[in-house]
Amino acid sequence: MxxxxxxxxxxxxxxxxxxxxxxxxxxxxxxxxxxxxSLPLADGGEGTLDVIRGIFGxxxxxxxxxxxxxxxxxxxxLWIKEDRHAxxxxxxxxxxxxxxxxxRNPALTSTFGTGELILDALNQGAKRxxxxxxxxxxxxxxxxxxxxxxxxxxxxxxYELAAKGENLAHIRQIIPSPIExxxxxxxxxxxxxxxxxxxxxQGAAHVFAKQKGADDEMIRQLDNGxxxxxxxxxxxxxxxxxxxxxxxxxxxxxxxxxxxxxxxxSEWILDLVSFDQHxxxxxxxxxxxxxxxxxxWEGKLISTVIxxxxxxxxxxLLVCGGLQxxxxxxxxxxHIPVYPILVPPMSLEEAISQAASHLRRIGENIML
Length: 368
Prior knowledge:
The chain is α/β, with parallel strands linked by helices. Helix content is 36%, strand content 19%. The strands form 3 sheets. It has a 6-stranded mixed sheet with strand order 3-4-5-6-9-10, sandwiched between helices. Strands 2-1-11-12-13 form a 5-stranded parallel sheet. A two-stranded antiparallel sheet has the order 7-8.
């Protein structure tokens, strides 16, 4: 039996590679004859660069940047010198995991540090820059990123605005960057884990800002800010493009300020790792992530892996830390077995801290 392990990370607990290792150890106990292939995956958020480096190699470049609250923070990006291609994971500089729960406030956070990473890559001589945008702490539509690249944002009195989410609504003029011509020479692409538009009920603020620390009133204000900055876009297609609302609107900001193209990260990653080729040789596929909920079935990594597996007529099983929104699983996916770690009376703390041992147990008992 050939088993393909292709999970995402278990956030706050295990990397995708560690999930593979734990499952493989368990499976080998009960199925010593199994031939196991590990193919760690990512969704554009934390861990994506590790997956890419495993494919292409490359060197880490460390840069002193500003974190989401403008504090100094060392952040790396991946540099492939031969191709002059930089891969930048925005969560390394502007991610929610860089903040404590008490610090999370998308009115005050900024993507400025992500812009500083881009600027360093330009100075390295990059001709291609790929920006992965999951796991953000921000809702500034890329205002901070653009400010780091030399764009200036003025209010109605002509005063320059600090580049953070609460100031989107006050923008009345955008001054182009002095390096705008240089930016146009670079091929930018964005890999996003969501397909949300920029503003409105399905936009960045209404769907994602609450988990970043916003209350209902802040969400309304942030959405108004996203609407305001969209009035500076040359056409409505930018704000309404799938993925424009990713990372608090950074998707739209990258399209506007960088002329970037947007791609669904899960499809992009599966193509990079030649998923279909590996899946064709497998008898069973096991994927998963830390939390499977309603978002998992709507274009994120899990749903994309399932779609590819079903197209290849391969059986698939899922593992996860926690399983939520069971009543919202699409009909076409309700038959897929799911093995969660967190089952009452287990505590969340145990599920996170002991994830590896529980995955070994699941691997040993999983029905292949």
